[in-house]
Every structure is written in structure tokens, then in C-alpha cells.
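Quick one:
INPUT:
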């Protein structure tokens, strides 16, 4: 069990994210660790194929499944999940399979990655909204001749600059946990 694991689980629960332990370890060991971490759902003594089957079952129930792992035995489950996150310092197979690799082996980075993903999605939606509004207003004006080509070009450049500027605001975000602030 990693030192910051209980804090990581608490951060995920605070975000409304349900945690589930899938492990090849013995049932007694897994249940003891899960109890310390506050994880209610545990599936122990499972082979990699059973991890994949459980992920597929959860997905078939409509759940969005993120799998976090660091071992060779986790690689198939990382690939099967909606989002696979490999822990830095883990096996090369896990890091090669997972679309997301956390740069350090700190479990608190899972919540940080989710937060950053949500913020990025929000920025994309904001940028699409403003680009749509721009096109909705400016294109008819330009097509009807009510807007000079020079002014239309300047407005288009301003639209692009505002999208880039809005996206750059993500650089101001540093995360909420100590994991995001420690270097």
C-alpha cells in the first residue's frame, strides 16, 4: 500500500467517484488493505482476464471505468477500461498500454488528472461556444456585405487569439492536492 493511498481514495470519494479494488493478491490481504483505505468493493485473487471481465461488466452497466495500475498483470485491464492510468515507476507494459501515464507513483495524482481532464473539457466547450457565436454573427454580416473583408479578417484573428488565450488559462491551474504542488 502506497503511503498516500488513503488520501487519494478520500479525494476521489470527495469528487463522487466510487473506488473498487481489483487485485491478484489474496482475499485476506486485499480486504485488510481495502478496510484501511475505505474501499467497500473488493475483488481479490483475480487473474488479468478476470480483471478485464469485471471492467467489461461495469461498463455494460453504464459505468465509466477508469483503471489505475502499475504491473504487467494490469496491462489488459488498463486497455479495457474507458480510461487507463499507469503509475509512474510501474512496469513498461502498463505504461505502454495505458493512454495516461502519471509521472510519479503518487496515487493522489489520479484525482489531479481527473480534475485537469474536466477543466480541459470545459475549456474546449467554452472555445467551441465562442467560435460558434462568432460564426453565427460574423458570417452572415460578411456574406451580406455589411462587414468589410478587412474588419472580418481582424475579427477572425481576434477570435483565434481569444480561443488561444482562454486555453492558456489552464496553465494557471496547479491542482488542489499536495501531489500537484510537490515537484
Amino acid at each position: 500500500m502506497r503511503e498516500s493511498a488513503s488520501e487519494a481514495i478520500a479525494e476521489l470519494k470527495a469528487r463522487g467517484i466510487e473506488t473498487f479494488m481489483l487485485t491478484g493478491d489474496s482475499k485476506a490481504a486485499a480486504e485488510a488493505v481495502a478496510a484501511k483505505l475505505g474501499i467497500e468493493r473488493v475483488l481479490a485473487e483475480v487473474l488479468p482476464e478476470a480483471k478485464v471481465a469485471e471492467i467489461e461488466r461495469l461498463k455494460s452497466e453504464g459505468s465509466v471505468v477508469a483503471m489505475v495500475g502499475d504491473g504487467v498483470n494490469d496491462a489488459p485491464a488498463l486497455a479495457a477500461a474507458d480510461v487507463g492510468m499507469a503509475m509512474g515507476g510501474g512496469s513498461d507494459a502498463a505504461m505502454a498500454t495505458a493512454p495516461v501515464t502519471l509521472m510519479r507513483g503518487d496515487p493522489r495524482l489520479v484525482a489531479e488528472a481527473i480534475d485537469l481532464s474536466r477543466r480541459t473539457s470545459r475549456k474546449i466547450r467554452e472555445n467551441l461556444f465562442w467560435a460558434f457565436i462568432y460564426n453565427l454573427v460574423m458570417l452572415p454580416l460578411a456574406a451580406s456585405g455589411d462587414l468589410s473583408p478587412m474588419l472580418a479578417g481582424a475579427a477572425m484573428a481576434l477570435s483565434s487569439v481569444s480561443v488561444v488565450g482562454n486555453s492558456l488559462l489552464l496553465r494557471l491551474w496547479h491542482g488542489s492536492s499536495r501531489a500537484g504542488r510537490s515537484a
